[in-house]
Amino acid sequence: MGATRRQLWFDPDAHARELAPLVAEIAADPPSDARALDRMVRRYPKRGRGLFRKSEIIAGYRALGGAARFGASERDFVARMRPRPVRTLSGVTPVTVLTKPYPCPGRCVFCPNDVRMPKSYLSDEPGAQRAEDNRFDPYLQTWNRLRAYHEMGHPTSKVELIVLGGTWSHYPESYQRWFVKRCFDALNDFGAGVDACPAAGKAPARWNELATRVEGRSLDGESVYNRIVGRELRAIAGGLLHVSEACSWDELEAAQRRNERAGARCVGLSLETRPDEVDAAEVLRMRRLGATKVQLGVQSLDDAVLAANRRGHDVAAARRAFALLRRFGFKIQAHYMLNLLGATPEGDVAGFRALVGDPDFRPDELKLYPTLLVESAELVRHFESGAWRPYTDEKLLEVVSACLASAPETVRLSRVIRDFSSHDIVAGTRTANLREVAARRLAERGVSARDIRAREIRGEAVDAVRLVLRERAYATSTGEERFLAFETAEDRLVGFLRLSLPDAAAPHAELERAALIREVHVYGASLEVGGRGASPQHAGLGRRLVEHAAAIARRAGHARLAVISAVGTRAWYRNLGFTDGSLYQLTDT
Ligand code: SF4
User: Fold this and answer.
1) What are phi and psi of 221, to 5 degrees?
2) CA 247, 249, 251: angle at the middle one, nearest 5?
3) How far is the CA of 166 from the centre of ligand 1 (A)?
4) Which of 22, 93, 273, 442 has the fewest CB neighbours in a 10 Å radius?
5) pLDDT tens digit string along 307-336?
6) What is the 370 CA–ligand 1 centroid distance (Å)?
7) Whose CA is nearest to atom 4 of ligand 1?
């Protein structure tokens, strides 16, 4: 890896004034835990924008004098900076990549308009900074993230690719194919020890030079973001797409096939979109791209609130999207917002309870986002007129606590608040650990959160013999769901499987008479493929869950069992007797 590319990312000398005292403080007074480290980092913000990342602080230590200047040896210093291995404890290493800035069909009043970013993201968010540093190139983002994980000692053999940015379904199909293919190319190359970043790094790089700031207070339903970004794209690419950002389905499928045996396998692929963009053609396209999960912007279950916020779709659109995605077997992660324009705390809690309880919805995962006001959002106008106010911290805590207490055991509440840096927030909570604070509030009242995240065992070793297999059933608009879970005697969740038993005609010939496995997840520190250990992933729990699902499907009258497998798990399912279809893998029950 050449020095030139390193400098492209970060130059410690250019930040020596803020970086040196931060490094000195960490070296002299080792932070007791991740939160203490976070507090130190926040005391020395990076000049111009954002906070220093851990890798940048380590680079600063090395470049600005190392042990000779700061006292602590490099080994000790790096150990202080190393995050606890939280990200990979659920068994899979997440790699988040952002699409390039591109027009979005939405006009949502709360949505940021940072024209250097894909719609709805701010350039100071940690993931967004990484994407910008890599010029939104999917190959560079994926490869460099894997490299960073590897350098921090995390395994990289099983990867969940999470594609974020604006409305995925609105990007041209050729860009979608190219974007996903380049992610797969990076996984394949990284797993094989190949670094093709220098060849890949030729994408236009003007986004971070774009000085235009959008003032939310001057907006009134017009998408200035779309106008500026559209103009810039035409200047860069001669159109909305650069000529190099395209590939054929054959090329994508070849990259996917290579990934089936790669050293870094894609075991999940997530895309994000709006409910009104979900139709049968789009769902099929997502599946063909290799997606297994869709992040769906529901935001509210109140039509008046959706209209006030210019969402451009109603609750019925979300109902239709849920039904379609579930029929095709996707895992559904819903985004739900609190404190939107026109919302009330009581309405937010009622909407959340409907989201997790109404058979038309019942997502598998949830992101709960209290509205945070940023200066580029049209909501500023409503703030200044007094039409919108953030809930007080106490009121918001009550709402979040009520939502957390209502989340059932079959749902994972994956995130509670956006990752905006506090200096971007004009109004709204700055409590970054809202979930923990809400969990404490519940605990004081003798209530425990019961969602998946509260109960998952994460990295601990377990005795596979003493596990109990529990089965939970719930109705949805498309049939019945079974949530099969291995649990410990201490009520910890070790692994689970989501099985759909559809009640109507299959939406695709391959799914005729088939029950559908939508997810298999077994926890345990993510070991290298072929590794050995006491991890639940190596105790055969996945196989036992699939066998149990097949028996349930047979009893329910389904002749076949299909699975919406990720590209990197195809080989595992073949070992279990599944054969490849065009979109799913199948076996007789
Ligand atoms: S659809 Fe999503 S990305 Fe587009 S404007 Fe609305 S919130 Fe922002």
Assistant:
1) 85, -10
2) 60
3) 6
4) 442
5) 999 999 999 999 999 999 999 999 999 999
6) 15
7) 106
